Amino acid sequence: MTGAVTPFIKICGLRTPEIVDTCVALGVDAVGFVFAPKSPRYIAPADARVLVSRIPPSVEAVGVFQSEPVDSIVAELAQAGIGTAQLHGDYSRDDVAALEAAGLRVIRARSVSSFVSEEPVPGRVLIDGDHPGSGAEFPAALLAGRALPEGWILAGGLTPENVARRVREFGASGVDVSSGVESERGVKSAALIEAFVAAARASG
Ligand SMILES: O=C(O)c1ccccc1N[C@@H]1O[C@H](COP(=O)(O)O)[C@@H](O)[C@H]1O
């Protein structure tokens, strides 16, 4: 017995009922819906609501935002029926507090560059490469010797092939993937999601 813990697994950028059902059947911890209008994975909040209705309470539904004002985030999440906001971009402590005061949970995404150069932020932290949703990895050396927040989630260029190694390399408590489980940009693959989840679980 190793005592190792299976990482928290989030699959991001869902847009179809089939892929939602695949994620639920695999027992992932969280699924993400991208509300950043320029993303190839963008889904309108009303369309996301239909997909969210298929998700049991045991799976956390997350709305992903990039530089969207707090008021819009609150409105869009209410429309989609989602209780967690994942924030990419420049959000202050007051922004996070306002979202929490609105009854939302927050995942604060930090680009690896801002994580190493700026003040720590409170709450659940996700560390990503500098280009969210691009599928690009960042070097482990960038975080070497850094104090990493409890329960932090690793993102950025994860794939079924590299996820176990990356989790061990970084000591991450969770993983989030989008590009690495797509057959083409913006199109999720059930087979790749299954392979990713198996590989992530094998890292624990
Ligand atoms: O997926 C997107 O298109 C996206 C757009 C804007 C902000 C965040 C986005 N996704 C998040 O990006 C990371 C890493 O994704 P990848 O696996 O490297 O493609 C992940 O946290 C997604 O939730």
Structural description of this entry:
Keywords: Amino-acid biosynthesis, Aromatic amino acid biosynthesis, Isomerase, Tryptophan biosynthesis. This is N-(5'-phosphoribosyl)anthranilate isomerase. Pathway: Amino-acid biosynthesis; L-tryptophan biosynthesis; L-tryptophan from chorismate: step 3/5. InterPro entries: Aldolase_TIM, PRAI_dom, RibuloseP-bd_barrel, TrpF_fam. Helix 1 (17-26) runs parallel beside helix 7 and helix 2 (45-52) crosses helix 3. The chain has a single domain, classed as Alpha-Beta Barrel (TIM Barrel), CATH 3.20.20.70. With 204 residues, it is of the alpha/beta class. An 8-stranded parallel beta barrel has the order 1-2-3-4-5-6-7-8. The protein has a two-stranded antiparallel ribbon with strand order 9-10. 32% of the residues lie in helices and 23% in strands. It has helices spanning 17-26, 45-52, 70-80, 93-101, 112-117, 163-170, 190-202, and strands spanning 8-12, 30-34, 60-66, 84-88, 105-111, 124-128, 153-155, 174-177, 182-184, 187-188. The chain is built from 7 helices and 10 strands. The protein is globular and about 40 Å long.
